[in-house]
């Protein structure tokens, strides 16, 4: 291909500007503090993958995919010598990353970057035997992906996709993955435009998956696999949709903004606004509770009341609670405010998406971590009875505050007439964000007991020293060994 045809179809359009930025961004263009934060986020993503690699629903997915695909060249995290072809490896490793609601999320444009980017970049690292990528190559591509996914979401008004029933991360995800892998593999701007176009035509994800289906765990995996697939096609000059973000008929923004109540329905300039100067990685947050992000303020609000009124919230007094009313912004309410059916046991997926369950678990267990979703604790009679007293509501006044996705107001009433109230604007991990030290503590806590200390230390040292790694496959080898399941099943 000539140098002329290596350019995007419309360099001044949103897609063209984005493709050129992805192509031109060098490691030296990225501020040191962004690269430093990226390493800690990657460590958190690896922790989440290890924890979920042998959960029951992960093992079902793994066994099904092993039946579908022959042995490949790409590592399956935590499964020893098992290997898969690149697309299946990306899909399954992403399913692990999203396996237990402990992963990262973007605070303004909800998606889970690690579940999209790490599996695809790991697969790309092992896809071709002759390719060799350094830790710096990996960091650059990872940061590029962390920028693109949120910007595509912001162009669709951030959390608005959730309020309309889309799984926002699965919609934005293919763009993030295609961007990262395109940067990693060194595609030219025209190829990057094709990769983005083919990635976007595969975008989708229904949020109804949260009501108990195992598929909820895999939907970011579709985005990881599909973005990788699109990029590998484009690398061979298979053409994709051009100007995919801005086309009025059948374009990405025009279609996914259908049904939006916002005016204007989309914000195309968000895709290229301040590229290279405003770093969206600073808005990526790390979960400190094992639950969907919009539930974290509810958990923190209950915890604050427990600390403020210790005698009131002793376990022996919890049966005296008559009602728990929680109020939320529309996106958080639509996502987590559904009412659990009384006559049907909750799956762990549904429980981790339920405001009712989050409040009840925090009241009884004073934490919402992995063990709350093991067989011995899920659907306990006292939890189900308390859930029936929890009444989530949409509060339009919270919507009016603007960027208030995480604001929660709570009122708890007792039989003797006592009422206590609390409001949380943003949970721990959102404001303030988890520090790098918090992430290391979380990593060590999650993997304690599921892999040995020597391996834990080596992985930690390798990830936090990634800029000095000559071949990323050195890290990937450390991820292959078997790990244990962390919950009772």
Automatic annotation (TrEMBL):
| Domain MmgE/PrpD C-terminal span(s) in chain numbering | 289-463
- Coiled-coil ranges per the record? none
The protein's superkingdom reads Eukaryota
Q: Which SUPFAM superfamilies does the entry mention? A: 2-methylcitrate dehydratase PrpD (SSF103378)
Q: Which residues form the MmgE/PrpD N-terminal domain?
A: 17-261
Q: Name one GO molecular function term.
A: lyase activity
In the record, the note on similarity to other proteins reads: Belongs to the PrpD family.
What protein name applies here? MmgE/PrpD family protein
Organism, scientific name? Zasmidium cellare ATCC 36951
């Amino acid at each position: 291909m000539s140098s002329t045809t290596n350019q995007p179809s419309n360099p001044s359009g949103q897609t063209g500007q984005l493709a050129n930025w992805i192509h031109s961004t060098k490691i030296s263009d990225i501020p040191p503090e962004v690269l430093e934060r990226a390493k800690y986020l990657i460590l958190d993503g690896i922790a989440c993958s290890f924890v979920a690699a042998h959960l029951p629903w992960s093992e079902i997915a793994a066994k099904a995919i092993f039946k579908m695909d022959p042995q490949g060249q790409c590592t399956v995290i935590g499964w020893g010598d098992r290997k898969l072809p690149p697309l299946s490896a990306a899909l399954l490793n992403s399913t692990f990353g999203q396996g237990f609601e402990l992963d990262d999320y973007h605070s303004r444009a909800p998606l889970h970057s690690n579940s999209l980017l790490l599996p695809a970049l790991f697969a790309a690292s092992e896809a071709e035997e002759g390719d060799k990528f350094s830790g710096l190559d990996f960091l650059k591509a990872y940061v590029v992906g962390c920028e693109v996914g949120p910007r595509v979401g912001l162009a669709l008004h951030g959390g608005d996709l959730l309020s309309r029933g889309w799984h926002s991360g699965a919609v934005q995800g293919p763009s993030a993955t295609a961007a990262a892998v395109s940067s990693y593999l060194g595609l030219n701007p025209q190829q990057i435009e094709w990769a983005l176009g083919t990635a976007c035509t595969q975008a989708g994800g229904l949020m109804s998956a949260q009501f108990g289906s195992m598929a909820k765990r895999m939907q970011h995996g579709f985005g990881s696999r599909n973005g990788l697939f699109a990029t590998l096609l484009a690398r061979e000059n298979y053409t994709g949709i051009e100007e995919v973000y801005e086309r009025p008929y059948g374009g990405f923004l025009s279609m996914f903004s259908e049904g939006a109540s916002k005016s204007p329905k989309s914000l195309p300039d968000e895709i290229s606004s301040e590229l290279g100067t405003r770093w969206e990685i600073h808005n990526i947050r790390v979960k400190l509770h094992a639950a969907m992000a919009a539930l974290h303020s509810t958990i923190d609000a209950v915890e604050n009341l427990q600390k403020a009124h210790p005698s009131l919230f002793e376990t022996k007094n919890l049966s005296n609670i008559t009602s728990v009313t929680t109020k939320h912004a529309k996106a958080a309410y639509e996502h987590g405010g559904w009412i659990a059916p009384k006559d049907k046991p909750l799956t762990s997926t549904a429980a981790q998406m339920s405001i009712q369950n989050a409040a009840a678990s925090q009241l009884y267990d004073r934490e919402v971590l992995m063990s709350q979703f093991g067989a011995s604790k899920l659907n306990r009679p006292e939890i189900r009875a308390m859930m029936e007293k929890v009444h989530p509501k949409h509060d339009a006044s919270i919507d009016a505050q603007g960027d208030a996705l995480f604001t929660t107001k709570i009122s708890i009433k007792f039989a003797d007439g006592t009422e206590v109230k609390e409001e949380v604007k943003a949970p721990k991990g959102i404001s303030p964000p988890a520090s790098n030290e918090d992430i290391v503590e979380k990593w060590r806590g999650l993997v304690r007991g599921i892999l040995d200390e020597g391996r834990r230390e080596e992985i930690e040292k390798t990830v936090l020293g990634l800029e000095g790694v000559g071949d990323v496959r050195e890290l990937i080898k450390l991820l292959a060994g078997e790990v244990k399941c962390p919950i009772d099943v």
